[in-house]
Specification:
It is built from eight helices and 19 strands. With 384 residues, the chain is an alpha+beta fold. It has three domains: 133 residues, no CATH class; 107 residues, hypothetical protein PF0899 fold (2-Layer Sandwich), CATH 3.30.2320; 81 residues, Beta Barrel (Thrombin, subunit H).
Length: 384
């Protein structure tokens, strides 16, 4: 079929199909957050924001004569449409004369794959906001180490069903090279499939996937852990309650660094330090408000204190991350089409520019992403 570039609806549908197939990280998230924006174009643009609410937590008292009334406090986070990605292609007479198959190969597929790559890089960086962290000098070099990483995620109350273990290419190579991981003697048929095709499959209740777009070594999470320690102070009813944005200590020594994962004895999930503290500070600012009951007098430590590290992946489920693709408006003066399916949306616009005397086709997407619940994400790291 000649002049395939004129079939704008076909081009948009094919672009969405190619981009969706190329996405690896984004489909592991709760893409239904797109529904928090309307399912029709309504002037959405970069900077639009919605609120995300995580569930509250309560203490259980043993009743004797009176009850203790608790407030409903939940953690609020926002998700902003931060990115407007675009690929614009000049269409010469050669491209305009292609049939649909040729146009798909020359224009649609390369552009859509690049958009998918950009989206995955963006979404992957949000994973670094995880509250949990498992650090090992021999990360995933044995089945025992994978079991310990699973335990770290379980302690954070991550749902055992539907867990993903997303790793970078370095950690993927480590796993594929382990005999316990790639042989039928230890894994049965999945081990044979791993050795034959490199498909990692399910291990210890986690679906293992790899992406070169996972942000290994990003400054947002890599560095050296601080050496702060202390004991929680709950002597007042207003200290360390669910919803508080700072962790209060009776006596803190050592320094807490930005990004430190703070472990509290008796609390399942770590908290994250948002601002570097002085060695004598008794108030530790937090990235996210407290969402669990903090016991009084509990020890405060930093996971991996003093260790240099680099993140290699993360364990999470499809309720941990959120991503949204709001539907873009159709321009009034250009031939255009917008398609959306399964929470992913793309717009294709084409037209002749009088100022440049050229025909251009543009593929673009709006996207926003955030940790829907950072408590449900466990980063895995090894020594830098």
């Amino acid at each position: 079929m000649a002049n395939a570039f004129e079939k704008i609806d076909w081009i948009a549908a094919e672009s969405l199909s190619v981009m969706s197939d190329a996405l690896i990280i984004a489909p592991l998230t709760a893409m239904d957050k797109t529904s928090d924006w309307n399912t029709v174009p309504s002037g959405y643009e970069k900077g639009d924001t919605i609120r995300i609410k995580t569930g509250p937590d309560f203490t259980v008292d043993e009743f004797s004569t009176t009850i203790t009334v608790q407030s409903v406090r939940s953690s609020n986070r926002s998700m902003t449409i931060e990115k407007h990605f675009d690929v614009s292609v000049q269409l010469t007479a050669k491209e305009q004369a292609l049939d649909f198959e040729g146009f798909q190969e020359e224009v649609i597929a390369p552009a859509a794959r690049r958009l998918a790559e950009k989206v995955d890089v963006y979404v992957g960086q949000k994973i670094l906001n995880a509250a949990g962290l498992y650090h090992s000098t021999t990360l995933f070099e044995s089945a025992a180490d994978v079991a310990l990483a699973r335990k770290a995620a379980t302690i954070q109350q991550l749902n055992p069903a539907g867990r993903f273990a997303l790793v970078d290419d370095t950690l993927e190579a480590t796993l594929l090279g382990q005999t316990w991981f790639n042989q039928s003697q230890t894994r049965g048929d999945p081990g044979v499939a791993t050795l034959n095709s490199g498909f990692m499959g399910n291990v210890m209740g986690m679906d293992f996937l790899a992406s070169v777009n996972f942000p290994s070594g990003e400054s947002a999470a890599s560095g050296t852990y601080g050496d702060g320690v202390g004991v929680t102070d709950n002597t007042s009813s207003t200290l360390n309650v669910v919803g508080s944005s700072a962790l209060i200590s009776d006596s803190t020594t050592g320094q807490f660094e930005v990004g430190d994962r703070i472990q509290i004895a008796g609390v399942k999930r770590p908290l994250i330090c948002s601002t570097q503290t002085a060695a004598t500070a008794t108030s530790i600012p937090l990235v996210d408000p407290i969402t669990e009951i903090i016991p009084d007098g509990a020890a405060i430590t930093v996971i991996g204190s003093g260790l240099a590290f680099v993140q290699r992946g993360a364990i999470f489920d499809n309720k941990s991350m959120a991503v949204a693709f709001p539907i873009l408006d159709l321009p009034g003066d250009k031939v255009a089409s917008v398609v959306s399916d399964n929470g992913v949306s793309i717009r294709v616009v084409q037209g002749y520019d009088m100022s440049t005397k050229k025909t251009t086709m543009s593929l673009d997407v709006l996207v926003g992403s955030e940790c829907y619940d950072p408590r449900r994400i466990t980063l895995v790291s090894n020594d830098a």
